[in-house]
Specification:
This is PRC-barrel domain-containing protein. This protein is mainly beta. About 10% of the residues lie in helices and about 35% in strands. It is built from 1 helix and 6 strands.
């Protein structure tokens, strides 16, 4: 059964990491259950290509993270399924 992830304000500030634990960015905002990520510049191009990011949110400059791309959310981080 596929898990459903809904982000909340408690997720703001969490590290976003890839499957190996490498930091890919941070959750900087959560709106309507969607987390917005400020990507680490060193991995931005990879994230953009793998996650299909086209444009940043006008208000925050961050990119929306789709729940389908997330393996799990812990107390400290959001772990992506792939990268």
């Amino acid at each position: 059964m596929e898990q459903t992830i809904t982000f909340t304000e408690r997720d703001e500030g969490k590290r976003v990491v890839d499957a190996t634990g490498t930091e890919a960015g941070r959750v900087v905002d959560v709106r309507h259950g969607t987390a917005y990520v400020d990507p680490d510049p060193s991995v931005f191009e990879t994230l953009k290509a793998k996650l299909g990011w086209e444009t940043a949110d006008e208000a925050s400059g961050a990119y929306p993270l789709q729940a389908a791309e997330v393996q799990e959310v812990t107390d400290d981080e959001v772990r992506l399924t792939r990268l």
